[in-house]
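JOB MANIFEST
job_type = single_chain_structure
chain_count = 1
residues = 193
[input]
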Amino acid sequence: HKTEYKTQTKTCDSIVFRSVDNIVDIDFDCIQRKNRGEVYEFILKIVKRSPMLFDKHIIVLRHFDKVLPRFQEPYKSLIERGVHNCCFIISATNYMSVNNNLVGFFHFLRVPLMNAVHMKQLLERVCLKNEIDGINLDSVIQACDNDLFTCLCDLEKLHRTAETKSTFENLFEKEIENLFEFIKKSKSLERVI
């Protein structure tokens, strides 16, 4: 009998995270810069509690390199405090951006980025295993800019909505393009600023 885990996207204290059982998954790429400081306080609440299931909380911090190094420093005390009841997993695209004081707490596993061919093969296996068909994987990979996490989220959404072609749109990137177009059309840069 295969156990199926359904992650739930939740919001608490303006922090959007995914969770299942005792696993909390926070993606700094999805959290506005002004709210990133609140993540520390949110995790501190988890560290203070005893896990309801299993021996430890598992706290996944994705894209930790998005946190400025000076704001990473407090996480050292948080990790020290939670050593008995938490397991921290940190992912970063650029591990050199992770504060040196934190590096000693972790074992690094370097995984090279996948190219489009490998990404498609992996997504095909995910689709086969989860009985998902009829989705244009090339459009998903292209729309999600080869980001595995975003591809999986888009794949889940497409499967849920019975769509076949990716509708993912990087809104931040689109707004920057709109801003540049506005600047080009403006006669004076000072008026834009």
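[summary]
DSSP finds nine helices and five strands in the chain.
Residues 63 and 92 are 5 Å apart (CA to CA).
exit_status = 0
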